[in-house]
Amino acid sequence: MFRNKSLFKCQVRFKDILTCLCSNAAKVEQKPPTTSLNFISQPTHFSHPNLLKSDEITPLIRKNEFKDRRKNLMNKIAQFTSQQSRSSKEYVVIIPSASKKYMSDKIPYFFRQNTEFLYLTGCQEPESCLVMICNELESYSSVLFIQGRDSHSELWDGPRICPSNVNDFFGIDQGLPMAEFENYLQLYLKLKPRASIWYDILSPIQMNTHNVIHNILKTGRNNMVESPKIFIDQQRIIKSPAEIELMRKTCQIASEAIIKTIETSRPGISEHEIFATVDYECRMKGAEYLAYPPVVAGGKRANIIHYITNNQIVNDGEMVLMDAGCEYHGYSSDVTRTWPIGGKYSKQQRELYEAVLKTQLDVIDLILGKHLQEVGLISKRISNDGLLKAAYKFCPHHVSHYLGMDVHDTPSITRNIPMRPGMVITVEPGVYVRDNDESVPKEYRGIGIRIEDDILITENGPEILTKHCPKDIEAIEKIAGKGL
Ligand SMILES: [Mn+2]
Fold this sequence. Notes:
three-stranded antiparallel β-sheet, binds manganese (II) ion, 21 strands, Creatine Amidinohydrolase, alpha+beta, Creatine Amidinohydrolase, Chain A, domain 1
């Protein structure tokens, strides 16, 4: 199974060193693996044929797609490097996995893989690291450093993949134990002293990797260190057909879960119970977990944008603003609905709701001001310039962000670029009237409303991925009245 593949065909000396490293790696695996690809630390086609086809590493995403992602990243960096007309075109890209985090002694938090690492490898192991190098012939090779087999740890945490299976399973050229990472990097930089290092040194993800890089750089090296983030984000912002399928599914699950949650809500219910319902429904429909701590805000608490305490009772006559989404095989949804707990919007709630809904449908945040002017929250004498300022007072957050593997996806990409097919964005205008705001009529005070949908940009216009979740007044009142 072990493939003693040379990484640098053009560098005889380095090849020899690496061959030596590889055979050391083989020695580290003292015991022959008791498990094969059938049982590793994450689902495979063999262990979970219900989830994965034979060439898929994660559901719907094939080995070749992961290979293309790595190749595209290397191409982008190569392109950038040659545009800069640098003396050395050699570089190494280092993408660490997430670490296990503990809430208290030996009690772990649920593990969530570092998104960039997952995007480029499909690997779910903690304390790992992807290293990709570009050699002089502009060909690339990749190494996945992983913890490797360890019978004691595996007794507690379950099977791990062994380095010799990395190529077969992930399609990455080579697997090595994480313990070899420092040696490997040191040897590489010895042989390529002017190579640039593409590693996000300002936002360390995993201390093992970070400390190794930090220590190597401390020894007086002057290699250029740059973050590959922008190039990964440029790729991630356009979703592939497989990713689009996953986005459709995560949005559908969240939509259906929210319908159920609205249906079962009633006056006197606690926000906590609403939270539990949406969490349960998402998981029951196949999501792994919620994509973020949901906002379940009854009454005036809806004016606290990041209200996640979710521990109050929702009384008759109040609305609930719930912002909840789930993660389905690594892809996130992000939906907000605001419904009347008693099944009917009051006159003022209905007016403001319609204003937000109209705005949401218009998709343009500037128009938010216009609709609020119609309701009378903003004086009709205010000019267009003043309108934007006034609108900001009632909606202080962005009305859109990119969505994908992360809830706030690809944040290094500006929001001022034209929409392109394959992008997924949220549209989420809101209106928040503080209960002590004496500049607006009393009946509107304390009302907070947001409506948020997830939208895929296609050649033929926008596709609303959360369309299964109703948002017009009649449809919402119908489902909100069901549990009464
Ligand atoms: Mn959002």
